[in-house]
Amino acid sequence: MVRTYVPMPFRIAAYLALGFFTLFTLFPLVWLAYTSLKPEQEIVQSIIAWPTTWTFENYAQAWELGEFSLLFVNSILYSAVTTVIVVLLALSAAFAFTKIPSRYTPVWYAFILLGLLVTISSAIVPIFIAENYLGIVNTRIGILIPYIAFNISFAIYLAAAFIRSIATEIIEASKIDGAGYVRIYWSIVLPMSRPIITTIAIFTFQACWIEYVLVYMLSSSDDIRTVQVGLSLLHGQLSFNFGFLFAACAIASAPLLILYVFFRRQLQAGFSMGSVKG
Amino acid sequence: MAPDGGMTPAPARAGVATSLVTPVRVRHAERGATMTAVRGADRRSYMVLAAPALIVYGLVIVVPVLYSLVLSFTDWAGVGLPHFIGFTNYAQMFSDPIFWWSLRNNGLVVVISLLGQIPLGFFLAYIIYRRLVRFSGFFESLIFFPALLSPVVVALLFGVVFAPTGLIAQIIGSFTQQAMFSLNVFNAKGTAIIPYLIVLLWMYSGIYMIIFLANLQKTNTEMLEAAVIDGASEWDILRRVVLPNQVPVFLTAAIYAIAGSFKSFEILWIMTNGGPSNYSSVLGLYMIQNTFTYYKYGFGSAIAVVMILLSVVLIIVLSGAAQRLTRRFE
N or C: which end of chain A has fewer CB within 10 A? Predict the structure, then answer.
């Protein structure tokens, strides 16, 4: 990296800008964290003050009342199963689109990418009708299927960008040795794609973890709900106690923090490739 | 992956939407890969590999969206048979002030992205890229983190931050010595959307920073080196070397911002539920409320159709501009 001599005022301005924005980013989160550890009477006195005594009471209460053990099992189940299936479906489709010559590919690929513009809300009514007809509304499988479908477009987009970069010669050589494309996919392309598999997996898991509308609309019983839906319902019941509410928020976000600590690069890669957000 | 360089030749200039419009160009390079004719076995492999994803996607997304299109021409209310009523839903929507107010708020969301998140993201990325500060990785990881949080958590947190006696009210109160200060930003029709815009700035500027950073790190450093040797100042480097190269990225970012503005509404749904009386609504929320609160499935579908059409049209226009500009700068 080349560096110019940067004059002092420029450098100070850079520190100020970055420092100010980091503070703006961090402050609400720090406030959430310490308020969740503050006893209720102190919160009533002042919602800004730093706690004088620290307590995990809010967390214990939130975990208990929010039935988070059940919600966590559901969220982890949906996110993990979706991640595995999305990775397999997306990689195989991306391989076919990029390495098997076919004149239909542009059509299929455009068809898949259009999915990036479709919101869950614009398809949810017909999905609900169809699931009702099939008798799978308010079941785990009824939630999993749309989870998978809504994550597939972006996963294929990520996978195609990667597989395109794999040298065609390797595939050609195996072709000449008599291997079919399905075998090449399993024994050559999948093992070579490990970096993008991690990225897609982490990214899909994160997207599933924060999903809200889908489960809210397709579930009516408590035992199949996710952390996010449970959290939003908790808010309706007990909106007065900030400490309790914030402890629940922290519990719901803890897996994301862990994911971020260990897989920061993969998450940032997914977002920098254009995950469409507000 | 993109930020650590190397493995993927990520489409630096052509974003999702650009390739969406011209998939043929993207594919062109692979065309010459195999000169052999597609044999039956290969065709079968293609189907075996591509079909599962296409079927799941087609059945769960495309068919429902097409069904929504059909429903949008009916008066279906959840029970009984739908009756075909032509463009009545659309006419009703365009004469509904809530539709226009929601569209205005969608516009504001796009504006905050174009004039807030994107330039801010660029400047933060530039500071980090040019190593104007130490510990840039530390700043980078903190600024990006909110983008990962769930809409529910963000809505609950900022609901309290902007509440009448919430965090901001208390801070202002303690500075101005008014113990009972109350912040009425959520109650007035003109300002109800402002907390949401601030939340978007807080939450997603980091994404644009990451996008710019990934693209800045991919750019050719030769020009930069030449500029440094020639004694260019930091300001000249920014203005004459870096910025012109990033023009296509700005457009790609704008495309993401527009697509995103039609997609997200969950935060508002939980934080204000569109209130007071729909003044903080956006199209996505307007659609959800008509569908699931008033059970106007046909009408709700018409809103969904308009949303998809609006974003497709805006994106085609922008990606056309992006391609033209990319060509000019190459």
Answer: N
* B-contacting residues in A 49-88 (Cβ below 8 Å): none
Considering its fold, how many domains does chain A have in total?
2
| Pairwise CA distance, residues A241 & B317, whole Å | 48
Q: Which residue has the tokens 């259009």?
A: A114
Please state, in angstroms and rounded to a whole number, the distance separating the CA atoms of residues B86 and A40: 57
Residue range B37-79, pLDDT digits in tens: 447 888 899 999 999 999 999 999 999 999 999 999 999 888 8
* pTM of the entire predicted model: 0.89
- Other Cβ atoms closer than 10 A to B80: 8
Beta carbons of B38 and A246 less than 8 Å apart: no
SS3 B1: coil
Structural domains in chain B, sorted by start: 38-64 (no CATH), 72-148+193-329 (1.10.3720.10)
What domain range is A50 assigned to? 8-57
Answer whether residue A156 is part of any domain: yes
Q: Which residue has the tokens 């990033």?
A: B246
Within chain B, how many helices (H) and strands (E) appear?
17, 0
Calpha distance B111→B210 (Å, rounded): 20
- Give me the phi and psi of B84, to 5 degrees please: -75, 125
Does residue B23 carry a pLDDT above 60? Answer: no
Q: Which of B63, B152, B261, B282 to mutate to test the interface with A (most CBs of A within 10 A)?
A: B152
The half-sphere exposure of A172 on its side-chain side, counting CA atoms within 13 A, is 10
Residue A226 placed within a domain: yes
